[in-house]
Amino acid sequence: MTEVRTRVTTLGDGRAGRRPTLETVAARAGVSRSLASLALRNSPRVAAASRAAVLRAAEELGYRPNASARRLAEQQSHTVGVLLNDLRQPWFADMLDGLSPELYAGGKTMLLGDGRIDRMLDESVTWSFLELGVDGFVVAGSVPLSPAIVDVAGRIPTVAVGGLDVDLPHVDVLANDNHGGGVLAVRHLLELGHTRIAHISGLPGRAAVLRLQAYEDTMRDAGLPTAVEAGDLTEEGGYRATVRLLSRPARPTAIFAANDLSCVGALSAATELGVRVPDELSLAGFDNSALARLRALWLTSVDGAAREMGRQAARTLLARMRDPEAPARTQLMPPRLEVRGSTGPVPVR
């Protein structure tokens, strides 16, 4: 008869299924519980050899600190609530690429919320950040200033990044120079010889309003008429606006779109209508997002330094946590135009 042996996987102190605790880690490392706790928090009071022994024991046992207990002990959750205006916008991916590593280096992790869904749910996501006890709050994009945001920003350190809609005491703001970036895009099209330049506008947030104003100011300074079609910062909105523009008797030879997603929609409409880009129609967007950098699209776009803005927002928030009463600051990131294959000289008639 064959003997069957069953292997039992054990955790922690050797009892099957038992979750390892700080006490079992300390016992494995041969140190006291308090010393193990200090070592896991990377305290400078712990000798390198003892810290190494504790970390090795924690890894061997599969120990994970109890977040709730840690929060009670330190009066911190080590988390930051990040409310994104609309997760569908590619700009946020680049911004988060800069924000997340800097927050992590400062000992914080992120909890993400979609502002568009939050508004549909009566701002339950924003309120939940308070209930979860986050240490800081990041408002990303042109988020409407709601009672929930005002309340949360008045209670915990807050930074607004990418939009100028939040104007509250002790709330730092990092944003694109939207007007300056819009001027760069329109001047580029003017320098290529275009005189019939249209604009696809965005939602009525400050960023979109400033980009529209830049277009109108630059066209007026050049003594040229304007042509504006309303969009909604989506691909579909850009598509529909471009169909309307290209249906006009004197259709534009160039379009400046309020963001890259709208510009992608403009490119789709031009392709469907048989209008060649850039031979017959030049297109310029805003944000220099991952979409604009795709070789298949290769869009000229204003670079608002989203990744760097995310880094600066994280550093600013961590500084705000250390000094909550410091005067609020507003910082505009200098724009830069990335010229690619979607813009070219005005077509010869």
Oligomer: single chain
CATH topology of the largest domain: Rossmann fold
N-end to C-end Cα span: 94 Å
CATH superfamily of the largest domain: Response regulator
* Alpha-carbon Rg, integer: 26 Å
Total number of beta strands: 12
Count of separate structural domains: 3
Based on Cα principal axes, name the global outline.
elongated
Spans of 5+ residues with little confidence (pLDDT < 50)? 1-16
Mean pLDDT: 86
- Sheet with the most strands? 6 strands, parallel
Summed up, the helix count is: 13
| CATH architecture term of the largest domain | 3-Layer(aba) Sandwich
Q: How does the helix and strand content classify structurally? A: alpha/beta
Question: So what's the CATH class of the largest domain?
Answer: Alpha Beta
Fraction in helix: 40-55%
Beta-strand percentage? 15-25%
Q: Strand order, biggest sheet?
A: 2-1-3-4-5-11
Keywords:
349 residues, alpha/beta, 434 Repressor (Amino-terminal Domain), Rossmann fold, 3 domains, 6-stranded parallel β-sheet, 12 strands, 16% strand
